[in-house]
């Protein structure tokens, strides 16, 4: 959203007419939430062109398109699981005597503004209500399982700041722009807000809570919980492999596999083959880290000594190989050859990427195109394999497989660029930083980093736009949230 083009239709009649036109436009495109900001910008531009409208309406139209995408989802959420968020600036600044605490405005319901009317309507429907500035509190209420959705009233200026936060967290929500910007004595289409509050069409299944899935997956990785899956033994290599796979880690890959399965099936009951596939993915990941640490001569990971530092490179190589064997054995036990084939293809591609990185000679320099090719072969498969295995376990289709492939391609590259920037890598190893320094020797360090940040943002947007053609709201919610967390 761009503050230089903000404009709000003058009259209720004009706003109502445009909302009806936007709803018809959205219905014709079968929009499913969430939508990325570039997608909203493109759709708004198309609507403006088709209806010969003032381009300054773009931001207001973007908000209404966002609402159209989410209305069905929000309407399916019971009122007691929704929050009405009102801005303090709706109060009458000359007459308001309400106190303000950390949660917001403690309305006296004196009737001098529209806040009491809206909060009383919320009370009648069973909704929670809050008069406060900003959407940060909403994110926390959703994360803490207090509410599942929000109907928020705000000025376009505040929505401009809040949209990235709402989109990153895939918050089911409807935003109603104030009819004029300003910090006090504003107004809103009150009856329209009340109409939205009363919409309710129960869904067959509630929205999934991916935080709960993530927390459960993390509990799997203890020696006790993996005893029935991993090979037991008293030899050092077996003990080292179990200790390593249970060591610290974010567990993104097994979580992604399980979450994709749940998103596509709507089930949180996980069959044994899904759990075995998820543990296998983590075995492959931890094996690749062992081998990577040896090749990069690293002595510490997760704030602790690497397997090579503890037991020597020879034993570390063997431990990594054992974990690879564990992973393939678990996949074989699922009885699904497609899982084995998908992992084998990803394994080969990852090794090719690592091989290209190892054969690079620092004296010849490296281009950003070459580095991106390494990322595509080495980093992307590690993300994509988890998503594709979840899809296979769910019995997914080729169209979704293609969407996940495009998403993974962009996400993996964005992730690795960010990782290079955060690690402040040595310029003697292949990285986005060393490539930019090689190609642009006259650029300052700050300019190089800013250019890479913009490149990462571009890939991030491409990842989210790749999801546009998915009709699964749950899958899109999951991957929008994952993108926000992985690229935080």
Descriptive overview:
With 488 residues, the protein is of the alpha/beta class. It contains 20 helices and eight strands. The strands form three sheets. It has a four-stranded parallel sheet with strand order 4-1-5-6, with helices on both faces. A two-stranded antiparallel ribbon has the order 2-3. The protein has a two-stranded antiparallel sheet with strand order 7-8. α9 packs across α13, α11 (272-295) runs parallel beside α14 and α17 (398-423) runs antiparallel to α19 (445-466). The radius of gyration is 26 Å and the shape is globular. It starts with 11 loop residues before the first helix and ends with a helix. The model has no long low-confidence stretch (mean pLDDT 89).
Poorly predicted runs: none
Give the helix proportion (percent range).
55-70%
Number of helices, counting only DSSP H or I runs of 4 residues or more:
20
Bulk shape:
globular
**Order of helix and strand elements from N to C terminus:** HHHEEEHEHEHEHHHHHEEHHHHHHHHH
Structural class: alpha/beta
Indicate the radius of gyration in whole angstroms: 26 Å
Distance from first to last alpha carbon: 20 Å
On the 0 to 100 scale, the average pLDDT is 89
Could you give a short account of the major beta sheet?
A: 4 strands, parallel
* Beta-strand percent range: 5-15%
* Spatial strand sequence of the major β-sheet: 4-1-5-6
Q: Could you tell me the number of beta strands?
A: 8
